[in-house]
């Protein structure tokens, strides 16, 4: 057991900042949820990845930028919805997907908020991630938060206070669910063959909802594998490395699972651009290993 007094000062202060960031994201969750009503329409702008923005994307981004950016110890705020990071002082660097899966707004299905905390300046590599969390707006609001290689799950009440639901979450050993994004005819042959082996396992059931956080939370809860693969038409897939792949990889690995881009852990891939994309696969270690063996070049 580490004694807090033995930590070098910068590690201790990073812990405090991470605590403030997690508290702020939890406090923002009921406001983001309440703000969805009446903000389901697209706005005129596209985000830096060329995707249509909903009014709710813009609302959640502005709210989180203001609240996280004003915290002491946060040096910059970057989001999927803005081209460049916002300089907010000195300290750790926060990357946010304010409303993951916002196309689920119309059918009133699950969505999430993702936050990643990096020590290095942006764009930062996965190796400099020091904490990550996601909020899931499901029938109840929950938050999965990882730090120090440990993931805890909280229920967020209507006042934005987190209540510990699952301490040191561990992905179940016997996986039962899978979900993969992209059009099936656009899947590369090797990936398609891997999916066939998963589907031929009678213990595995399809769970795909179209918002990464909802789909990843199925894996965290029941065990299995989620992927948004490399596509024939898009070899880098769809998901954003800095905003989605690194934080979800960190959360899943901290819960005893594995992550991959098809050949290595998501946390070890390099990044040069803030908004670049990568194939993403996360889940039980044995399934991610099988995936890698199937799709590796
Ligand atoms: O961030 C993009 C996203 O909304 C993810 O949450 C989700 O996994 C993916 O897109 C769904 O994409 P598709 O509509 O191609 O299945």
What does this protein structure show overall?
It contains six helices and 15 strands. It is of the alpha+beta class and 297 residues long. Strands 4-3-5-6-7-8-9-10 form an eight-stranded mixed β-sheet, sandwiched between helices. A five-stranded mixed β-sheet has the order 12-11-13-15-14, with helices on both faces. It has a two-stranded antiparallel sheet with strand order 1-2. It starts with 8 loop residues before the first helix and ends with a helix. The N terminus is likely disordered. The protein binds 6-O-phosphono-beta-D-fructofuranose. The site of 6-O-phosphono-beta-D-fructofuranose (F6P) has 11 residues, from loops.
What secondary-structure arrangement, pairings included, does this model have?
Blueprint: H1 9-35, E1 42-46, E2 52-54, H2 55-69, E3 74-79, E4 86-87, E5 92-100, E6 111-118, E7 129-137, E8 141-147, E9 150-156, E10 162-166, E11 177-180, H3 189-199, E12 205-206, H4 212-222, E13 224-228, H5 241-254, E14 258-260, E15 280-283, H6 285-295
Helix pairs in contact: 1-2, 3-6
The protein binds 6-O-phosphono-beta-D-fructofuranose.
Give the beta-strand count. 15
Distance between the termini: 42 Å
Strand content: 25-35%
The ligands found in this model are:
6-O-phosphono-beta-D-fructofuranose
**Overall pLDDT confidence:** 94
Series of H and E elements? HEEHEEEEEEEEEHEHEHEEH
**How are the strands of the biggest sheet laid out side by side?**
4-3-5-6-7-8-9-10
CA gyration radius, whole angstroms:
18 Å
Q: Count of helices?
A: 6
Helix content, binned percent: 25-40%
Detail the poorly predicted runs. 1-5
By helix and strand content, what is the structural category? alpha+beta
Morphology call: globular
The biggest beta sheet reads: 8 strands, mixed
